[in-house]
Amino acid sequence: MAAARPYTSLLLVLALLLLVTFSNLAEAHGRGKLRPQDCKPKCTYRCSATSHKKPCMFFCQKCCAKCLCVPPGTYGNKQVCPCYNNWKTKEGGPKCP
């Protein structure tokens, strides 16, 4: 029975590594770590440098609600949030500011 313990420990460690890997993959495919209530403050900062605040806030909050991620800064850095970056309008332009 004592020989089974190392295998059980090894199996537990492998299962944990697999779980961490899958959670990282899920995040990489577009869902971030924000909670819905975190969207407004993040979007307020994201849209702070634009002269079109109302549409920026509308689309940023819509994108954040779907993706649970807002890129850092007031412009660019969209590669940090693949879902936010890849959501396009019907015309093919970026949906998220």
TrEMBL record:
InterPro entries: GASA. The lineage of its organism: Eukaryota, Viridiplantae, Streptophyta, Embryophyta, Tracheophyta. Belongs to the GASA family. Transmembrane segments: none annotated. It comes from the Eukaryota. The keyword Cell division does not apply. Keywords: Signal. PANTHER family: EXTENSIN, PROLINE-RICH PROTEIN, GIBBERELLIN-REGULATED PROTEIN 5. It comes from Morus notabilis. This is Protein RSI-1. Pfam families: GASA. Residues 1-28 form the signal peptide.
